[in-house]
Design brief:
Elements (H helix, E strand, L loop, with lengths): L16 E5 L6 E6 L3 H15 L5 H17 L1 H11 L4 H24 L3 E3 L10 E9 L2 E5 L5 H14 L3 E5 L5 H14 L6 E3 L4 H9 L5 E5 L2 H10 L4 E5 L4 E5 L5 H13 L9 E7 L3 H12 L4 E2 L8 E2 L4 H16 L3 E4 L3 E2 L2 E2 L2 E4 L6 H4 L6 E7 L2 H8 L4 E2 L1 E5 L3 H10 L4 E4 L15 E2 L2 E2 L4 H7 L1 E9 L1
Parallel strand pairs: 5-6, 5-8, 6-7, 8-9, 10-11, 10-20, 11-18, 12-13, 17-18, 20-21
Antiparallel strand pairs: 1-2, 3-4, 4-24, 9-23, 14-17, 15-16, 19-22
């Protein structure tokens, strides 16, 4: 069988290369070769051939457990690459390979239990002599297109279930975080994922577009922006899609909320990873009776946070992934201020660093109110009734996670029933995710569900077997 194809660091496969730099100081971390059309065809051919070879469940389980072990043993190396690439602090980066290793172990467990069931054919008159069942079969070649913000965890969430289901995978990382992904995938192959079952293509949008349009790719698993997600749906043709496209996450602070806990959770949810998080807190609706107390507590806490270089272990909020992204977020802040918004704390830009920012009186027409900022900025909005807060929280075209802080079981159930999101988190930030839960959104936040078992089901199809006895 052909060897797996990995295009990236230390492979002079093309003359075109991408430089990877830390956005704080522009220090070069490494460079990457860019896949050309020949490489794309080669990777798909290798993956297609591999997908047709025998891959029994016990081999999948062993490979996934070994993958988890090797990620654990190289966690520090991967974390350093992540922080150097610049999407999160070194403290945040150290948690990601460990999390990915656990996702691979979960995937091994799912591989053992991913099964069909018998079917009662005699439920139909005239079919009394028929018996049968259905099984789950791999789709074949799955293209996994990654964002920059949680690349190693998402290797786990996409590659793990795909391998559990018996598929072959082509990973296309974001150019800004490709070094850590390439190294992670090299380790996965060393751990024993079979040759051809895992391939990596580095490059920009052209590589992703070619994978999306190729007839031999049977599924696209994509995490990223809404505009790209819409382009994928137009270009993919007839194939399975799993799209996670971000949100504008609302949190409701009700009159009986435990404010100290809410302040900590909201700040963590808004400013971790410099706000570059699809689950990041962005709109905070606060009951008018506790608005002043919550606002003052949140601002006081936010002002204790240190912003700076991702490699500084004392930093809470690092630089954004690119200077252009910091410029964009600052322009959104300025736009809201021109419309009458007030900056309570933060609001400043130093190079690629946006200070953690709390604002109020943001006009509904401002992009901060209705689009995903993907930066360390949140807005506060007072409300009078819970019904009002839920209605305003729903008044956007996305819905990934939402949250409410309340001590009332009745009010918690009301929000859980009426908030138009994929998950409602009670007494915690929207930034909470259990890796086994069905993860995805409503409206324009995406299509399909991740979460190991749910992703594995998306990445397989049913085949019915019926005997006429």
């Amino acid at each position: 069988m052909d060897a797996p194809l990995i295009i990236g660091e230390e492979r002079e496969l093309t003359s075109k290369r991408i430089e990877v730099r830390n956005a704080f100081d522009n220090a070069q971390v490494g460079s990457l070769s860019i896949a050309d059309p020949t490489h794309i065809e080669q990777a798909i051919s290798i993956a297609k051939a591999a997908s047709k070879t025998a891959f029994p469940v016990h081999e999948r389980v062993n490979a996934l457990y070994a993958a988890a072990d090797i990620l654990d043993s190289h966690a520090q190396e991967i974390a350093l690459l992540l922080a150097q690439e610049g999407s999160k602090t070194i403290t945040e980066a150290k948690r990601e390979p460990v999390r990915a290793a656990e996702i691979f172990r979960m995937s091994a467990d799912v591989a053992r239990t991913l099964a069909g069931e018998t079917l009662p054919f005699d439920a139909r008159p005239g079919s009394e002599s028929r018996v049968g069942y259905y099984v789950r079969r791999p789709l074949g070649v799955i293209a996994c297109i990654l964002p920059f913000n949680d690349p190693i965890a998402l290797v786990g969430h996409k590659v793990g279930p795909a391998i559990a289901g018996g598929n072959a995978v082509i990973v296309k990382p974001d150019p800004s975080s490709s070094l850590s992904v390439v190294r992670t995938c090299e380790l996965l192959l060393e751990a024993g994922i079979p040759a051809g079952r895992l391939n990596v293509l580095t490059g920009g949008a052209a590589v992703g577009e070619a994978l999306v349009r190729h007839d031999d790719v049977r599924m696209i698993s994509f995490t990223g922006g809404q505009n790209t997600g819409e382009a994928i749906t137009r270009g993919a043709g007839i194939k399975r899609l799993s799209l996670e496209l971000g949100s504008n996450s609302p949190v409701i602070i009700h009159s009986d909320a435990r404010l100290d806990a809410a302040v900590q959770a909201v700040a963590d949810g808004a400013f971790a990873q410099a706000g570059q998080n699809c689950l990041g807190v962005q709109r905070v609706f606060v009951h008018e009776s506790v608005y002043d107390a919550f606002r003052d507590g949140l601002c006081a806490h936010t002002e204790t946070l240190k912003a700076g270089h991702s490699l500084d272990p004392s930093v809470d909020v690092c630089q954004m992934i690119r200077l252009e992204e910091a410029d964009r977020v600052k322009s959104w802040i300025d736009e809201a201020v021109r419309g009458g918004a007030r900056v309570l704390t933060g609001g400043t830009q130093t190079g690629s660093v946006i200070a953690p920012t709390v604002m109020e009186a943001i006009p509904v027409s401002a992009r901060l109110a209705c689009e995903e900022v993907y930066g360390p900025v949140l807005g506060l909005y007072p409300y009078a009734t819970l019904e009002e807060a839920v209605g305003r929280a729903n008044d956007v075209d996305v819905g990934l996670h939402g949250a409410v802080f309340t001590e009332s079981l009745r009010d918690a159930f009301y929000v859980a029933e009426h908030l138009e999101v994929g998950a409602v988190i009670i007494n915690d930030s929207t930034d909470y995710r259990l890796d086994t839960m069905p993860f995805g959104g409503t409206k324009k936040s995406g299509v399909g569900r991740e979460g190991v078992r749910f992703a594995a089901e998306e990445m397989t199809e049913t085949r019915v077997v019926c005997f006429n006895l």
